[in-house]
Design a protein that fits this description.
The protein is an alpha+beta fold. 36% of the residues lie in helices and 16% in strands. It has eight helices and 16 strands. The chain has helices at residues 2-31, 198-242, 294-304, 310-316, 321-330, 334-347, 363-375, 379-389, and strands spanning 43-45, 51-53, 59-63, 73-76, 81-82, 93-94, 103-107, 116-119, 123-127, 133-137, 145-149, 158-161, 165-168, 171-174, 350-352, 359-361. Helix 7 (363-375) packs antiparallel against helix 8. The longest helix is centred in the middle third of the chain and has 45 residues, at 198-242. The radius of gyration is 35 Å and the shape is extended. The N and C termini lie far apart (108 Å).
Length: 392
Amino acid sequence: MEGAWHRGKWNKKAPVFTTLLLMCMFTLAALEPSEEQTCPPSDYLSTEGICCDQCHAGYKLVEECHAPGQRSICTPCPDKQYMENRNNFPNCRSCRTCRKPNEFQVSACERDRNTICQCKDGYYKFHIDGETYECRRCKKCGPEENEKQKCTPQENTVCECKENHYRVKNKCEPCKNCTNECKHLCSSLSTKPNVPDQGSKFLINIILGVVSVGLALLVLVVLITYMATKWFTKKRLQNLSSQPSDVSPDTCEQVLISSEESLGNCRVKAVPQSPVSEQQPSNLPDCVPLEIKIPDLIYTVLDLVPVLQMKQLVRTLGVKDTEIEQAEMDHRSCREAHYQMLRVWAKRGSHAGGGGRGEVLQRSLMQDLLDKLRKMNLGWAVEELETKYGIQ
């Protein structure tokens, strides 16, 4: 009787347990991670996780959509700006300006395409990086060369050596002694290469030995000088750091690293804007050449060039390592130190501006700065400087 009573009690509770089990299974299935949401090719996944439509070419994004089925708010690119493809970017790109006198405009900039420029006759495009190029004069073949391919606005002249000539250090030489380099150009192999005698070999070995010893001594002297300079610099920095000083919040501590000098030894703080009194004068007559004021140029370069490449730039501009170290010791802030390094370079060719407007930079130094930035693959910074100062 007792067993039958328990079985009856279980039979009443069985449907309840079954229902709870099924509810648990459905809950676990709902909690399983869903596949990553994908959007159609013409849409993009917004910050709110919604598929929004992209802006058409020639437009930029103003506001994303907020619900499925809604459209993003886009606006046309302003004058002198463009966007070539569909996008969801908040800013358009600046139009290219053709550089005179070696380049002319083929078609003007539109909202959906950039300006198309072409090198004039006698010049070709020399690509500095993926987006930056300059028009350079076409190469002329030498007296011992034949023109294999003429120069075009896109490619330089291609030259090849004349018959029975071969190239040595980018110069075509006639094949005379049937050496290994031009053996295939000789009609016969009767002429043997000159073989130096034993006396000449002994003299050559002596010269090579003396040169090797001299180079080894030179390397040793340079290494000792470098280690001594490094040790004295470290001691000076330690003495300076041990003295109490009022350090403002926007300064950063310089740390000397035992390996190659690193630019990551300080924390970059807020970028100070150039004073109003140092801003470049505008609305000058067309007949007056635009003056490049040194403080304004330096602040512009500091804003464009990455901090980690600043020392590389000033070294290529001719600033000495001692001057760089002095700037770092005089200024705890990275930006102030970099400003001082650029000022050392700029003051070598500065002169007083007309009307008491301060020091201005020589145009030759400005061109040197642009060339160094191109070699560092900072073509976009070059374009910004050329646009700001109207350099063609």
